Amino acid sequence: DKEVRAIFLRLFAQLFQGYRSCLQLIRIHAEPVIHFHKAAFLGQRGLIENDFLTKVLNGMAFAGFVSERGPPFRTCDLFDELVAFEVERIKAEEGNPPKMIKHVRELAEQLFKNENPNPHIAFQKVPRPTEGSHLRVHILPFPRINEGRVQELLQEGLARSQGAPPATRGDKKCVVPAGPPVGTF
């Protein structure tokens, strides 16, 4: 699992190499907005006609990526280190599969350590069931319902609901969609 994730980590580090140079911080609004300059990124990489990368950059997942990774002051992680420092190593390993596999395994180990900082706690032994335990029936009988207590609870609920003010539904504010342009009707 971690090795597959490490391969994708390397792929995206190569794919988005230099993305930070195309981020623009717009401070017109109260909250700064981070904008990604797609044309500059594609032009710098010489991939203006690349349909795949253009679709990736236009997708919602990439927009979320930019909003999460765009702020200049945040904690760095393994992806940031790969994009910043390891891209040349990844390029050098393209013709050498054993070195590539070694790097993937190193990344997988780092991913594992990031998710499990205390490995002795992460793995707990599950006791082996005793012999014949599958033959025992552990079904407890369903308890009998006290009809008098059920009626009491229903009456209490009705009394509370009659004395309470009518419930109002709080409308959730959202952006109203624009819909089709007027000329299409």
Automatic annotation (TrEMBL):
- Which InterPro entries does this chain map to? dDENN_dom, DENN_Domain_GEFs, Tripartite_DENN
Q: Which domain of life is it from?
A: Eukaryota
Q: Which PANTHER family match?
A: C-MYC PROMOTER-BINDING PROTEIN, DENN DOMAIN-CONTAINING PROTEIN 4
UDENN domain ranges (all copies): 1-76
**Family matches, as PROSITE patterns:** DENN
Q: Which Gene Ontology terms of cellular component type are present?
A: cytoplasmic vesicle
| GO MF terms held by the record | guanyl-nucleotide exchange factor activity
Which BP terms in the Gene Ontology apply to this protein? regulation of Rab protein signal transduction
Q: What is the lineage of its organism?
A: Eukaryota, Metazoa, Chordata, Craniata, Vertebrata
The protein's name in its UniProt record:
MTMRD protein
What SMART domains does its record include? dDENN
